Amino acid sequence: MEKSPPETAAAAAEVAARFRSLVDTGDIGAIRQTQHLILGRLQDSNAVLTHFNEYSEQCFAEVSNDFAGKTRLLKSMKADLDHIFLKLRGMKSRLAATYPDAFPTGAMAETMDQRPDLESELDHDSIALSELEPWMVEAGSGMLEAAALGSVDNGSRARRSRSALRRARNEREGGASGRI
Fold it and tell me: Where is the KxDL domain (predicted)?
């Protein structure tokens, strides 16, 4: 029941001919042409995407260094500003404690920095002497007064500033001139 090789070859040719007759050769050519067109478009798209990825990687490398530098700068500026506001709050509270009648009632609460504390766990309302600048601790309240008026270079200026502050307070109170 084995077929001879010429009979097998003839049977294979007959099966192949029948399969070829099932599908039109024009349709097969159109399918192959469409597949080549799609393949070309996919290769073009792949080349464009590869080029875009390389360009994006290059741009990211350039921008990431700038971005990291700007981030460090902003963090440093925030730390500096937090330190400055901490010192200012301490100076304001010391001035208010030393000269309570220099500030109208409730004005100190309005002038204190009321920003929300977003990151720090420090208590910004109280300030220790160790956190003050050395010239503030050495000079005492007279120097704080002078610092509030912007003159901290020598003692005579601080004395003049204190007396100017007293005169201004006396004039506000409508009182007599003289030392307090």
Answer: 18-103
